[in-house]
Amino acid sequence: MVTLKSRAEIEETRKAGRIVAAFHQAVSDLIVPGVTTLDIEAFALRFLKEKGAKAAIVGNRIGDVMHAVQSHAEQHGFSVVRDLLGHGIGREMHEEPNYPHVGRPGRGFRLKEGMVMTIEPMINAGTAVMTVDADGWTARTADGSLSAQYEHTIAITADGPIILTTMSHPANSLF
């Protein structure tokens, strides 16, 4: 069952998201990744803001959002892992609904005001196929290509989607 959040609950999630974003910002100044990985990470964040989240409006379907993510990645020569899922988030870390980061326009559940969910695709420079190590956690590309995953939490509101896990001000709006 999808749990819709009130404006107050969304605001609390936004506060938590800002803390996470501030941490990411501070840590990013300390870490110097390989150039190719940095390019992939920058790409993942850019397409989330420019493509995927913009389709996350009341009345659209999850397939509209994930098709935007998938299409943008593939147009730039990347692939999107099909085995990992986005999910609702709120009172619990992983809530309904669950959905892949690929999709077809007009398919899947309709987005409703008050939904809070993740967009967290794993973008690969090679194949979309992944393997999981014996530890049950470490994911790798099947072909050994480079990969990046970046997660944001978004709220579906009547005024449009809001990325809750960014430091942008004043309202973290995409528009």
Description:
This protein has 175 residues and is an alpha+beta fold. The protein has one domain: Creatinase/methionine aminopeptidase superfamily (Creatine Amidinohydrolase). 31% of the residues lie in helices and 22% in strands. The chain contains 3 helices and 10 strands, in the order αααββββββββββ. A 3-stranded antiparallel β-sheet has the order 1-5-8, with helices on one face. A 3-stranded antiparallel β-sheet has the order 4-9-10. The relative contact order is 0.21. Residues 169-175 have low confidence and may be disordered.
Secondary structure: elements and pairs:
Blueprint: H1 7-28, H2 35-52, H3 62-75, E1 79-80, E2 85-88, E3 95-100, E4 116-119, E5 122-124, E6 130-132, E7 139-141, E8 147-149, E9 152-157, E10 160-163
Antiparallel strand pairs: 1-5, 2-3, 4-9, 5-8, 6-7, 9-10
What are the key terms here?
175 residues, alpha+beta, Creatine Amidinohydrolase, 3-stranded antiparallel sheet, 31% helix, globular
Discrete helix count: 3
Please write the CATH class name.
Answer: Alpha Beta
What's the domain count? 1
Low-confidence stretches: 169-175
Q: What do we call the CATH topology?
A: Creatine Amidinohydrolase
* Average pLDDT for all residues: 80
Keywords: Aminopeptidase, Hydrolase, Protease
Protein name: Methionine aminopeptidase, type I
InterPro entries: Creatinase/aminopeptidase-like, Pept_M24, Pept_M24_MAP
GO molecular function, one term: metalloaminopeptidase activity
